[in-house]
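Figure 2 data, in text form.
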Amino acid sequence: MEERMMDVIVEIYNHMDDSDKDAFTLEDAEDMVEDQIRMDKEAGREPLAYDPQFFYDTIVERMEQDAE
């Protein structure tokens, strides 16, 4: 997985509060991907092949790690 994508996911995760984490869904991940593609384009960067399922799985995994 491209390092920039992981950096994006970590950045998003670090800005999520507990209520965001408690209510997090695949639909939220899809919205995040849409937002990230838009931000990449606005910044003049070629958007990566962001995968909402990967975003979702990675964020859920981080939440589980934090809960331990």
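Caption note: The longest helix spans residues 26-42.
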